[in-house]
Specification:
Structural class: alpha+beta
Shape: globular
Number of strands: 12
Number of domains: 1
Order of helices and strands: HHEEHEHHHHEHHHHHHHHEEEEHHHEEEE
Helix content: 40-55%
CATH architecture: Orthogonal Bundle
Mean pLDDT: 92
CATH class: Mainly Alpha
Bound molecules: protoporphyrin IX containing FE
Low-confidence stretches: none
Length: 446
């Protein structure tokens, strides 16, 4: 039965014939969503060519989509050929029983105790990276290489020293191709030989090579414990095992999801600190007074309240997973709105977490707002950088621990300043990253 409330139709901004809003969205995806939510409210209909999209930035409705009615939605990635070619049918993009089986398989590698065991690798790899940090660098690239090395070592027992920039380059191409497809009224198949598609295919071939090499090494010489070892050895009730293609999809998904998001957060954190010298000074003092020469050990994390607040506030302002897509598998009633089967939804952490309805001075960087109890005082799902519900980020504990260890260890050793070519601009594709990196001068204190 439909209630009287159920008849509201979300407003739709004026769009162009046929293409609707897709061109404006593609120019600046996060900025456009922010703009329409300010002008048209927390539930807005958009048209991307032949795709109907409802943008939802209201916490109670987000809770329904991600938590209460999670089973009524699926991931939308299959409609995007660039993303499909990149991450295939891995944990991030798969659905239903298949996803559940894979999630259960991966989960033990992310139990809190297991993640704590990765802390030493995080600390030691950071110290190793600091030994060769140059006096001028793109700190975005620095974090990307470091977090990639860490995820490869902790989850796959693989050393990828020296391959970081190859992966970075390939990922860059893939994100650009994805962004281009976000702007196409109907996403074009990769078989059309556009220059972007050719570059994407070459980039994916490069990523495949690195990933399949890791899998081959694991098969030839099984490691005692690693997530990759578990995935290679996992056997279904019928005796079947994952083939190389599925292993490749899972491994690549974890490599990509497990490093770039954390690297983005750390990059935004450095740029926010550079814009707020007093907070930078206080964060460096905290790290220097609490940590020894050996960087941040597990037991030190609790002694770094300001670093933790900086992490939380950075994730609020620049959530690397800045939007979440879903497609309705059936008709769904969301509060006073009716969502028909097949409708695409876009929820946006970036927009909700900067809403003046839920946050004072929403665009200001104020780590001090994250006092004990602050998060609990917020409406559920007003702050959801890791999503929530059954598809919550599997790596949330991993990411927070890594963020704390890497940021504090680096701040305990390095004084950062803006380089001459420092310039910050948002680039939103699958993730939200600083478009031109974060160009800095780094002075070692030792
Ligand atoms: C600051 C860092 C991170 C942020 C903000 C973040 C955010 C997210 C979000 C929002 C989702 C849900 C996406 C959706 O439902 O569409 C997600 C899923 C996922 N994340 Fe993360 N993530 C981070 C770090 C990590 C790390 C370190 C790993 C692994 C080591 C990881 C692995 C994954 C995987 C595999 C999924 C898919 C889970 C599933 O659907 O079962 N993430 N992440």
């Amino acid at each position: 039965m439909t209630s009287a409330k159920a008849v509201r139709v979300p407003p739709m901004p004026k769009g162009l014939p046929l293409v609707g809003h897709v061109l404006e969205f593609a120019k600046d995806p996060s900025g456009y969503l922010m703009q329409v939510s300010k002008s048209h409210g927390e539930v807005v209909n958009l048209k991307f060519g032949n795709r109907n999209m409802t943008v939802i930035t209201r916490p109670d409705l987000i809770a329904l989509v991600l938590r209460d009615y999670a089973k009524k939605f699926k991931k939308p990635y299959r409609g995007f050929p660039a993303l499909k070619a990149l991450i295939g049918n891995g944990l991030l993009s798969s659905d239903g029983d298949f996803w559940l089986r894979q999630r259960r398989l991966a989960q033990p590698a992310f139990h809190r105790e297991k993640v704590r065991a990765y802390g030493e690798t995080m600390r030691l790899y950071t110290l190793r990276a600091l030994e060769k940090i140059p006096s001028k660098l793109d700190v975005f690239e620095f974090w990307n290489v470091l977090t990639l090395e860490i995820v490869a070592k902790t989850l796959f027992n693989a050393e990828i020293d020296g391959q970081g920039s190859r992966v970075g380059h390939a990922l860059e191409e893939a994100l650009q191709a994805n962004r281009a497809q976000m702007g196409q009224p109907i996403p074009l198949p990769l078989s059309i030989p556009l220059p972007g598609h050719k570059r994407l295919k070459a980039a994916i071939a490069e990523l495949d090579k690195i990933t399949l090499e890791m899998i081959a090494k694991e098969r030839a010489n099984p490691s005692e414990y690693s997530l990759l070892a578990m995935m290679v050895a996992a056997t279904d009730e019928d005796g079947s095992q994952m083939n190389d293609e599925q292993l490749r999809d899972e491994a690549l998904t974890l490599l990509l999801a497990g490093h770039e998001t954390t690297a983005n957060t750390l990059s935004w954190a450095i740029s926010l600190l550079l814009e707020h010298p007093n907070i930078m000074k206080a964060a460096c003092e905290e790290a220097r007074s609490m940590l020894g020469a050996e960087g941040c050990r597990l037991e030190d994390i609790a002694k770094l309240p300001l670093t933790k607040q900086i992490w939380q506030e950075t994730l609020r302002l620049y959530p690397p997973a800045w939007s979440i897509g879903r497609t309705a598998l059936e008709d769904v009633q969301l509060g006073e709105y009716f969502i028909p089967k097949g409708q695409n939804l876009m929820l946006s952490q970036y927009v909700t977490q900067r809403s003046a309805k839920y946050f004072d001075n929403p665009d200001s960087f104020k780590p001090e707002r994250w006092v004990e109890g602050y998060e609990k005082s917020l409406p559920d799902y007003a702050y959801f950088p890791f999503s929530a519900g059954p598809r919550v980020c599997i790596g949330n504990v991993f990411a927070e621990m890594e963020g704390m260890i890497l940021l504090s260890t680096v701040l305990s050793r390095i004084d950062f300043a803006k380089a001459d070519d420092y310039t910050i601009e948002i680039y939103a594709s699958l993730t939200m990253r600083p478009k031109h990196g974060v160009s800095v001068l780094a002075a070692r204190r030792d």
